[in-house]
Amino acid sequence: MERQKRVGAIHDISCVGRCSLTVALPILSAAGFDTGVLPTAVLSTHTGGFEGFTYRDLTEDIEPISKHWQSLNLKFDALYSGFLGSFAQIDLVADLFKTFGGEDTLVMVDPVMADNGVLYSVYSPEMAKGMAKLCSMADIIVPNLTEAAFMLEEEYVGDDYSQEYIEKTLRKLSDMGAEKVVLTGISFDSAKLGAACYDRKTDSVSYAFNERVEGYFHGTGDVFGSTLLSGLLNNFSLAEATQIAVDYTLKCIQLTVEANQERRYGVCFERALPHLIQRLGLMK
């Protein structure tokens, strides 16, 4: 049997509202990986659509966890970071990448900090600049258009963009350091939505689209990122893994609509896991 790959997922825990670690851990586990977690913060709910949520910053826990992992001589096939709980965590996660990274470790950063032209309430412009530094250390980054604009210190264009703009943005993001870039939430057609990806090694751009479902669905960025990494670690190409992530995210949204699920609680990704397992070729 092939050796089981290990992933280190560095995200917050939202106790209610499916996103971050409560999405990444089950998806990566279902995809066949031994997934360790390093929580950056604990929230009673995620920050979108809820008021009065609690927030506990876990910055002081990161270094002791890292030291214990080092004492165990842990090795990771991938490190995957998302929402960070404080500005100080940027340097701490950068140290994790240096400590546990290497030629055989895929480092993926989802710079979770903004959407629809606006930073999340617990983020600052200073953190946005710091996130750009962290992305420079990654092998692959997965921003949306808002996050790309903040990291490149450019004006957010909203829905007013061309294919030329997207491809120029992909290359500028890659120039920050990451060899591969996946830009999410891309659409050139009102009926389709998906992502654009760039591989600097081959200087190639590709697109992955599927049906657009109107409305905003919380947690889909984390579903997408976790599925993308699952595809890459199961030896699919960047373009193939991106299409798998687009398709699975759509399936989760469709099931949520069918179930008339209240959208602020996240998408019904659990019910779509058999679809993902089959798509990844893991079902015997």
TrEMBL record:
SUPFAM superfamilies: Ribokinase-like (SSF53613). Keywords: ATP-binding, Kinase, Nucleotide-binding, Transferase. Its EC number is 2.7.1.35. CDD domains: pyridoxal_pyridoxamine_kinase. GO terms for cellular component: cytosol. GO terms for biological process: pyridoxal 5'-phosphate salvage. Pfam families: Phos_pyr_kin (PF08543). GO terms for molecular function: ATP binding; pyridoxal kinase activity. Residues 74-261 form the Pyridoxamine kinase/Phosphomethylpyrimidine kinase domain. Gene3D superfamilies: 3.40.1190.20. InterPro entries: PM/HMP-P_kinase-1, PyrdxlKinase, Ribokinase-like. Coiled coil: none annotated. PANTHER family: PYRIDOXAL KINASE. This is pyridoxal kinase. It comes from Desulfitobacterium dehalogenans (strain ATCC 51507 / DSM 9161 / JW/IU-DC1).
